[in-house]
């Protein structure tokens, strides 16, 4: 029954360089992971329990969700309720250019909150999403995009170098860099140990505490990012899986859907297919 209700729509807008994301009728849990891009989204319907960077939130319709790149998070339904969710995903370079246009300054923004309950900014996300799906003129989409970002920058963001952010120590950073460079290889715990002064148990505990995910989950997330890049370039899913270091096509497909909410083929189609007809936004809870 749930499978029939599910709708998973993602569209890449070439004018703005961002993804518009809509999941509806979803009961799927999303495990602990992170993204290398900003996420600005909201719960349109249903309830979710969210864990993000050691904090927990109960989410309802009308709640705003803000993820910085590398903010680890996971979520699950509350009382089996289905989720309706909309978001835009913004790469760091796109965000930096937009910030300069809006503020006249060059800086990397950092969202100071991950959740804002019952925020009127949700209306602006819906407006931007609908403009993208409706193939509105570039000017209208840009207005919606900049208006949304201006609201968030004013109310819920600070320059990255001014934010209170704890970073991993140098040994952990070295391990992250190694996995990012050798993502397609069969990396073992002994490989990682050889670059530190840690024991196995301490390495696992320390890495997970400082980064927010385990070494294996970090490596798989890096592989997922690379696989997405290959898919965007038109590489066949079976080849993208191999190039990114996944053991087999089945494992890759299951992992991809578990974390992205789409299959690799569905994700790849957003860069080649025309968008689906507009799904009108529901009435926003705080109107």
Automatic annotation (TrEMBL):
SMART domains: HTH_ARAC. InterPro entries: AraC-bd, AraC_XylS_family_regulators, Homeodomain-like_sf, HTH-like, HTH_AraC, RmlC-like_jellyroll. The keyword Transcription regulation applies. It holds the Pfam family HTH_18. CDD domains: cupin_YbfI-like_N. It comes from the Bacteria. Keywords: DNA-binding, Transcription, Transcription regulation. Residues 173-270 form the HTH araC/xylS-type domain. This is AraC family transcriptional regulator. It comes from Blautia caccae. The lineage of its organism: Bacteria, Bacillati, Bacillota, Clostridia, Lachnospirales.
């Amino acid at each position: 029954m749930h499978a029939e209700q599910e709708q998973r729509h993602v569209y890449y807008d070439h004018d703005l360089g961002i993804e518009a994301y809509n999941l509806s009728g979803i009961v799927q849990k999303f495990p602990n992971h992170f993204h290398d891009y900003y996420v600005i989204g909201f719960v349109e319907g249903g309830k979710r329990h969210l864990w993000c960077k050691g904090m927990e939130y109960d989410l309802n319709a009308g709640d705003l969700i803000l993820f910085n790149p590398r903010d680890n998070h996971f979520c699950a339904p509350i009382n089996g309720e289905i989720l309706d969710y909309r978001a835009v995903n913004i790469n760091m370079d796109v965000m930096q250019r937009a910030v300069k246009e809006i503020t006249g300054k060059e800086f990397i923004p950092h969202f100071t909150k991950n959740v804002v309950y019952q925020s009127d900014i949700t209306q602006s996300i819906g407006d931007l999403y609908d403009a993208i799906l409706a193939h509105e003129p570039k000017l209208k989409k840009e207005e919606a995009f900049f208006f949304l970002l201006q609201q968030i920058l004013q109310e819920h963001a600070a320059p990255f170098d001014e934010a209170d952010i704890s970073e991993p120590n140098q040994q952990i950073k070295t391990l992250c860099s190694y996995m990012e460079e050798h993502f397609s290889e069969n990396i073992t715990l002994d490989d990682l140990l050889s670059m530190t002064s840690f024991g196995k148990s301490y390495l696992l505990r320390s890495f997970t505490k400082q980064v927010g995910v385990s070494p294996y989950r970090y490596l798989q997330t890096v592989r997922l990012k690379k696989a997405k890049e290959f898919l965007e370039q038109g590489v066949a899913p079976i080849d993208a899986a191999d190039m990114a270091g996944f053991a087999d096509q089945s494992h890759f497909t299951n992992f991809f859907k578990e974390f992205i909410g789409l299959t690799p083929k569905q994700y790849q189609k957003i860069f080649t297919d025309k968008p689906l007809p507009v799904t009108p936004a529901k009435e926003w809870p705080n109107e």
